[in-house]
# Entry
Amino acid sequence: MHIDFLTLYPDMFPGCLAYSLAGKALQLGLWSYKATDIRSYADDAYKTVDDIPFGGGAGMVMKVDVLDRALKDVYKTGPLLYMSPRGKPLTQSKVVELAHAQAITVICGRFEGVDERIFDLYPIEEVSLGDYVLSGGEPAALAMIDAVLRYVPGVLGNADSLTEESFSQGLLEYPQYTRPQTYKGLSVPDVLLSGHHQKIQDWREQQSHLLTQKRRPDLWTSYQSSQHKKG
Ligand code: SAH
# Structure
């Protein structure tokens, strides 16, 4: 998989993706990336990439001509994404879908965003990390690609982690414990020490249900209707 990042801050990449699982996979060549400086496509002596918004208002807007030249050069094929609070919130199923791509191009916004006409020129999908505003698309792009890379074959040591974790079944994950068995008077649930696999699985499922009901009633409702459909 190859990832192209378009950004005003290429030094922010690969950032956290140089560490741990993604970092090892990068060294092994399981994925590659290029961070392209949008500013290198500016055409004036000042390397201008932004301008004041038509109609007035706060802040600056990234220029369409500069971004167009950058995309014309960089974008070849595959999903073309713009990180944006106006986008569809990123979900685990979207992450899995993206992981099937050979190439992904991610545009990182800055200022108040980009000139709207870029969406008329390219098949751009807007993706949001959540209902809050970041100062730039870079941390959002890094978080999204981190989630995607976990699904690239060979990146995760134990592929079973992908099927058991939060959201994979539409539920939050059950509580986990490791040694020591007792810490500051707190012990781990007896069932986990029982060695009884069925009981452990039942307990984990029950905990996962309880947690989801309590913390994410929205997820619980869609889980229930999906179980209903399965019959
Ligand atoms: N004025 C814009 C916010 C601009 S924030 C608005 O009100 O919608 C500057 C840049 O940060 C955006 O262009 C976008 O690329 C990025 N960004 C901010 N919040 C984000 C979020 N929740 N998800 C993804 N990208 C985000």
